[in-house]
Amino acid sequence: MRSVLLKSDIMTSQVPAALNSDPWLIATEAQRQTAELRFQLIGPGVQLIQAGASVNNVAALLAERLRDTDSAVQKQLLARLGEVPSVSTLKRWLSGYRREGKVGLLSAHTGRVRKDYGWELRATALYNLPSKPTYAAVALKLRKEGFDTATDSRVTRYLKSLPATLGENSPARVGKHLHKLRHQKYQPRTLEQIKVGDIYAGDGHTSDCYVAHPNTGGLFRPELTAFIDIRSRYVPGWYLSESESALSTVFALSHAMQTYDHLPLFLYLDRGAGYRAKMLNDQATGFYARFEMDVIGALPGNPHGKGWIERWFRTVRDHHDKFFAGGQFYCGNDMAAEVNRRLSVEVRSGKRRLPSLAEYMASLANFIHEYNHTPMDVLDGRTPAQVWASLERNPVVLSAEAIVRPREKRTVRRQMVELHKRQYYAAELALYDGKSLTIEYDLHDDRTVWLYDAKDRFVCQAAIVRTIGVVPQSRLEEQREKRLQGQVKRLERKADEARARAQDSITVDEQLAHLPDLNVQPVIDLDRPGKGIVIDLLDNE
């Protein structure tokens, strides 16, 4: 029995009938040329009709003149048309021109008309499944459903003739979001009004190379956080870390700020946790607000929004990671699978040596320097460094150490403030008891903090007096310890799940207890002439 086509299989009402409804525009060039030739032949007759003559008389007169014509022009027109038109043909042309103008002279011949087999709509629905079945698979499915005329060649020709909205890259096959990114219109952007250094685009990317972890020596892919100036394509700051985080963003951006003593007006970032953390995004104490940098948030799932930095990461992959250490430790999806299939085993056995993180960092720094001094077509043959040279600096003013100090709000109690399970004391805080102050702290050394009032005026420097519990001196060490505890908890949950799965969820005894009572005799009758063949599975008498 043929399956019924559900309305949910395909929305045919969403398919445009034609891209343009003007018959003259959608006609082929050959059809338009033929219409022009016909008009030149009947042109004198059209004038007679406009003067009051009848169509029949004009058609008969034109047919007689064309048969006995001595005009070289008319002979050439007849030769291009291929034959001398009859009276009825001339009447049809004259009437068509009176109704629709030159459109009425277009040839109505459409060539061989395709036969409708009845499975076309079902074939379209099957082909537009997100599982992306092939032409042959659709044809086989149709034949299984009872459409015997659905041969591979017929189904293939039909599916290839479908419009793009129902074809190989239709929204139903590739997904609406991906179709929008790749096949629908987009908003072009211009950088003419933007100056060098106005906008940085930043993002994180896991390197496509294996290196030795600094602590364990095992396989490790460092996280590269970078910022690129979208006007000059220059990369002013970058940072390698173990994973994307707010700290990696601070360090990468601080690298750019310290190196070139410049603050961008805007930062083009995605909406990930590494860029939207309170340390960075808080309106009062955040890193962005502190240096008066506005954040432009890219739309989720839209890599084209920050295509400058995404394209740069691809450049790093194609021109650095694929050649680093002889290309033997590249781990992109296009790497030869057999090369690194047993990499971890070979590293542990000493057969292969992983390059160190320091080697990768030095190689990457050299590559970024080369990139910044490579001429580009998009820059009219200039290098990013040459365009960056026109930078009008917006000075940072602060010292290098102060740039990377995060800030938070705290309330003064008894001449002390508490931050991250640490208490800090200063005699000057007696004047601010009960008031909220901004604390600026060092990520590497927790012995001292700097305090500022609501107008960002320096109040005092407070020293640590005691800690609550056991905390490391460096806040970075504290973050690493938190990360380690999280990793251990995740591994413990994974181990618990593995132990649970090792237990039989359904035992043999349970299966036997729930077996149905076999009181029906399953019989297979091949329905052959005569007595036939009967197989009694229960061997009953």
UniProtKB/TrEMBL annotation:
Coiled coil, from the record: 474-508
Organism of origin: Burkholderia cenocepacia (strain ATCC BAA-245 / DSM 16553 / LMG 16656 / NCTC 13227 / J2315 / CF5610) (Burkholderia cepacia (strain J2315))
Annotated protein name in UniProt: Phage transposition protein
Keyword line: Coiled coil
Alphabetized PROSITE patterns for the sequence: INTEGRASE
InterPro entries reported in the protein's UniProt record: Integrase_cat-core (IPR001584), RNaseH-like_sf (IPR012337), RNaseH_sf (IPR036397), Transposase-like_Mu_C (IPR015378), Transposase_Mu_C (IPR009004)
Residue ranges occupied by any Integrase catalytic domain in the UniProt entry: 184-392
Gene Ontology molecular function: any one: nucleic acid binding
